[in-house]
Every structure is written in structure tokens, then in C-alpha cells.
């Protein structure tokens, strides 16, 4: 779908393009002015008492946004999340809103992050890769419900992942244990419990991260499916995990939605894939 109107009386009325940022208090900042971000459907009246002090996004008449849903707006656009109690969008990622920009309504996906590290499990190393994956997943509309640090032990990895898959977690991200050392066991642990192997994720990570390091081919990162859970193994460093996530982020949400039989409402396919 497309954004049909951007209406903000306090900014002069109709807008064609604006920049939105988080205002620090659970609201939005539009072109430097603190304004709640509301939405209306085409054909609905925009009541002055409700919308006069707000930025209103007018969406197509069929649009439906429920508590916790995300609104993802185009390339370089903002990511917003609907707060039904406050009747406003929370700005999750700064960006631009423009009339005629494509937008998708995303249902939140359930996610979990598993850090695999002997030192991390003993409290000898601060985990930076796990929180980074959680942050990046949130920008794809994934809400992390579980997080855990385990040693480089195949049984510990299998136990955590199988428990989360049994709970219906849609996306499980692991970090660590994808190298060549004797204690790097994550790929083997995941393959041993997999219903399906999804080779494209690891292939894309290695191909895309070659622009950062000529040693990218050494990572054994991969993805598997167990039940209705997509499980992806990333490198153990914050930088490596971030770069590999970037490499697969374009198809990540679609992969999970396909697996669980869901689809983004009013999403459309802009890539032609």
C-alpha cells in the first residue's frame, strides 16, 4: 500500500515529505517538532479535537493496524509501532515519511537470541553480539522473548534451541561457534536437530561479507528449520554478526512469514522476486 496523505495542522497542514525521530518519551518528533503520530483510513473524517496536534498518516481504507503491529515505510523510511492505548505510533527507527511511499504492516514475530561462548557463559566476556542481533531483528519486526548464554557445548545448544522451537518462537538467532576451532560446535548442533537445511543464508553471508574481509569464506554460518522455527547461526563477534545479518536481512522476514504461513498485510512485492 501507499501513504496517501501526511496531515499536520501545526506544521502548516498537508506535508509531502517529513523526517521522523523518536522524541525520548515514547512518541515522535516530526521535522524537529514533538508531535504524536496517528493514522486514519482514506474516507474517514479527521476530527479536529483528535488530530489537530498530531501528524496523521492517511492509509488506504483496507489498512488495519492492531496493538504491537509495525508500519515499515519504504527504502530509507521510518519504522513505526502502533500503541493502541496511546492511539499513536512509536518511532522505532528514524527515517522519512512521504506521500506515495510504499508501506507494509508487519505483525510482530517472536524471536530469541542464543549466545554460544565458553567465556561468556562463565561471565568472563561481555556479550555484544547477542544484543546487536536483538536490535537488528527488532528492525525487522521481531520481538525478542528469550535470550540466553550457553557454553560451546552441543547438548546445551540443542537443548536451548529445541525448547524455544517447541514454544513456537518464529526466529531463533545464535551467535558464536561458527569457526574452525575444536570448540566451535554450533553448525553441527543445529544440523543434528534440523528438519530442513536452508543453504542460501550461509552462502549469502559469505558472499556479501567478502567486501569486508578476504577471510569471510571461513565462517560456517548457516540456517536450518525445526518445526515452524527458522534458526540462523551467526559469527560470535558483534561486527561479524552485524555484517552477516545485513547480508540476509532483505529476505529474512519473508522467509519466516513463508514458514509460518503468514504474510505482511497490504505489503505488495516491490522487488519483483
Describe the structure.
- It is a single chain.
- With 273 residues, this protein is α+β, with helices and mostly antiparallel strands.
- It folds into 2 domains: 5-106, no CATH class; 109-260, MoaB/Mog-like domain (Molybdenum Cofactor Biosythetic Enzyme, Chain A, 3-Layer(aba) Sandwich).
- The protein has 7 helices and 18 strands.
- It has a 6-stranded mixed sheet with strand order 14-13-15-18-17-16, with helices on both faces. A 4-stranded mixed sheet has the order 2-1-7-6, with no helix packed on it. A 4-stranded antiparallel sheet has the order 5-4-3-11, with no helix packed on it.
- Helix 4 (154-166) packs across helix 5 and helix 6 packs antiparallel against helix 7.
- The longest helix has 23 residues, at 238-260.
- The chain is elongated.
- The model is unreliable at 266-273 (pLDDT under 50).
Short description:
Helix 3 packs across helix 7 and helix 4 crosses helix 5 (186-192). Helices cover 26% and strands 31% of the residues. It starts with a strand and ends in a 13-residue tail after the last helix.
Question: How much of the sequence is in beta strands?
Answer: 25-35%
Rg calc: 21 Å
Question: How many structural domains?
Answer: 2
Number of helices: 7
Largest sheet: 6 strands, mixed
What is the molecular shape?
Answer: elongated
- How many β-strand runs? 18
Rounded to the nearest angstrom, the distance between the terminal CA atoms is 17 Å
User: What is the SS-derived class?
Assistant: alpha+beta
Catalogue the unreliable spans: 266-273
What is the CATH topology assignment of the largest domain?
Molybdenum Cofactor Biosythetic Enzyme, Chain A
Helix content: 25-40%
**Average pLDDT for all residues:** 91
| H and E order | EEEEEEHEEEEEEEHHEHEHEHEEH
What CATH architecture label of the largest domain applies? 3-Layer(aba) Sandwich
CATH class descriptor name of the largest domain: Alpha Beta
Q: What order do the strands of the largest sheet run in, or round the barrel if closed?
A: 14-13-15-18-17-16
CATH superfamily of the largest domain: MoaB/Mog-like domain
Amino acid at each position: 500500500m501507499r501513504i496517501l496523505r501526511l496531515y499536520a495542522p501545526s506544521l502548516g497542514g498537508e506535508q509531502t515529505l517529513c523526517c521522523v525521530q523518536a522524541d525520548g518519551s515514547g512518541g515522535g518528533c516530526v521535522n524537529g517538532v514533538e508531535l504524536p503520530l496517528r493514522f486514519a483510513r482514506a474516507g474517514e473524517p479527521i476530527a479536529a479535537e483528535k488530530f489537530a496536534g498530531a501528524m496523521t498518516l492517511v492509509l488506504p481504507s483496507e489498512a488495519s493496524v492492531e496493538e504491537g503491529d509495525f508500519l515499515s515505510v519504504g527504502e530509507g523510511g521510518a519504522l513505526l509501532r502502533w500503541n493502541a492505548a496511546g492511539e499513536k505510533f512509536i518511532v522505532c527507527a528514524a527515517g522519512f515519511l512521504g506521500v506515495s511511499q510504499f508501506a507494509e504492516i508487519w505483525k510482530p514475530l517472536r524471536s530469541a537470541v542464543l549466545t554460544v561462548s565458553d567465556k561468556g557463559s562463565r561471565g568472563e566476556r561481555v556479550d555484544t553480539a547477542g544484543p546487536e542481533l536483538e536490535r537488528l531483528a527488532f528492525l525487522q519486526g521481531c520481538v525478542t522473548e528469550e535470550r540466553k548464554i550457553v557454553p560451546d557445548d552441543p547438548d546445551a545448544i540443542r537443548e536451548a534451541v529445541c525448547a524455544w522451537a517447541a514454544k513456537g518462537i518464529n526466529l531463533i538467532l545464535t551467535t558464536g561457534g561458527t569457526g574452525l576451532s575444536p570448540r566451535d560446535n554450533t553448525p553441527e548442533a543445529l544440523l543434528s536437530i534440523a528438519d530442513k537445511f536452508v543453504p542460501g543464508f550461509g552462502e549469502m553471508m559469505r558472499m556479501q561479507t567478502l567486501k569486508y574481509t578476504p577471510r569471510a569464506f571461513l565462517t560456517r554460518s548457516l540456517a536450518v528449520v525445526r518445526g515452524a522455527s527458522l534458526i540462523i547461526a551467526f559469527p560470535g563477534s558483534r561486527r561479524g554478526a552485524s555484517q552477516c545479518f545485513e547480508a540476509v536481512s532483505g529476505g529474512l522476514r519473508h522467509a519466516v512469514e513463508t514458514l509460518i504461513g503468514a504474510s505482511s498485510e497490504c505489503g505488495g512485492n516491490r522487488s519483483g522476486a
